[in-house]
Amino acid sequence: MANVAVIGAQWGDEGKGKVVDWLASRAEIVVRFQGGHNAGHTLVVGDQTYKLSLLPSGVVRGKLGIIGNGVVLDPDALLAEIAKVGAQGLKVSPENLRIAENTPLILPVHPALDKAREAARGDAKIGTTGRGIGPAYEDKVGRRAIRLCDLAEPETLSAKLDQLLLHHNALLRGLGAPQFQKQPLLDALLALAPKLLPYSEAVWERLDEAHATNKRVLFEGAQAVMLDVDHGTYPYVTSSNTVAGNAAAGAGVAPNAIGMVLGIAKAYTTRVGSGPFPTELHDEIGQGLGARGREFGTVTGRPRRCGWFDACMVRQAVKVGGINGIALTKLDVLDGITELKICTGYSINGQVFKRLPAAAGAQAAAQPIYEVMEGWTQSTYGARSYAELPAAAVKYVRRIEELVEAPVVLLSTSPERDDTITLRDPFAG
Ligand code: GDP
Ligand code: IMO
Ligand code: MG
User: Fold this and answer.
1) Under CATH, which architecture does the 4-102+200-260 domain have?
2) What is the C-alpha to C-alpha distance for residues 156 and 181, in angstroms, rounded to an integer?
3) Strand, coil or helix: what is 58?
4) CATH number of 265-428
5) Ligand 3 center from residue 411 Cα (angstroms)
6) Is 208 a catalytic residue?
């Protein structure tokens, strides 16, 4: 089985969209299996830049896109994104996009609660994208969610909305935020039904058929292992499992249908939002990485925090995320830095750790232990073959492979689709 799952190996924005787009030329189906429109995946093809949040990145190559049940779907955001890419010349219709009928929906109550909670947390805020992702997943687990299939049953929908509002209005009241009336929400959902239901199907059947007929499927993760609700820097995480294992549950396929797991990692580290970040740089080197790497959030426009490559953390992501190979992106951003540092472990209250412990206090206290490497002055921007890279860059990549205990199989050297170096074919497993 030559399927590939692409997941983030750091705190997101590693370049998953670019890598999925690169691989999608040889896949037939691209599946999103978790997250929602908190994701922002950028694809650069010639003079066009596509910023996708919900649409699987394969739509740009004209491949069939599937939104799996593990996603939380904001109908308005989806329709707006379809219109946005439509204006860029991409036609998205039920012909090339299918959505799992059991996908939970994000309703206006969810961003309202997300924002009210963040405001109430003050300085302790998570720094969420404010898209309602956490509250929507809570409703799914709390068995209150409105799902896509409910739009076809007005009576079920009406009864479920009563349950949902009972819960949400109590919370919003407690937070001093405005409450929601049922009728406008019901009317809006009934108006959305004819636009959304044509996309709805039992996608597990289609994926089962794809499996049986050896069609290549690409699973496109959003966020990253260190934002995973179990394995990340909790509570400064998103509300879904971002590890490759969730591709199975989030799409309705067998675990052995996932195939090769490609972890995407930047050649340095970034993070947007609050939470621990042991290798964060507050100096001009960090500012330089942000400026050269254009590190501003795709979704919220917030500046991303920048720091050195954390091999200890990526090694952990490799282990818990099930990563078999790494795609290392943004190598070009390190051009011209004379001395590079790689974190190989942490010192926490006088003790050395080769992993990031789970306790929030220990994570906040983690001091990086660095190994220093020589940088390079030549440009790697746009390199398309390994032979074009300076010896110091090759050494840096090789050292990363050793430390994270996974081979680097792809290298990316610019935002542009074709500025990619393949060292080993991910579809070959
Ligand atoms: P994603 O969320 O993982 O898909 O990543 P984003 O799209 O949010 O952020 C990655 C950013 O880096 C985007 O602006 C990409 O166009 C850009 N990018 C991807 N790969 C490279 C690369 O190798 N070099 C440079 N300079 N930029 C890259
Ligand atoms: P992609 O797919 C980077 C971060 C938010 C916040 C935390 C929780 O583009 O890599 P949420 O809105 O999910 O409840 O926010 O997670 N976050 C991301 N950071 N890339 C993303 O997606 C992210 N999606 C969420 O900044 O810290
Ligand atoms: Mg992003």
Assistant:
1) 3-Layer(aba) Sandwich (3.40)
2) 17
3) helix
4) 3.90.170.10
5) 18
6) no
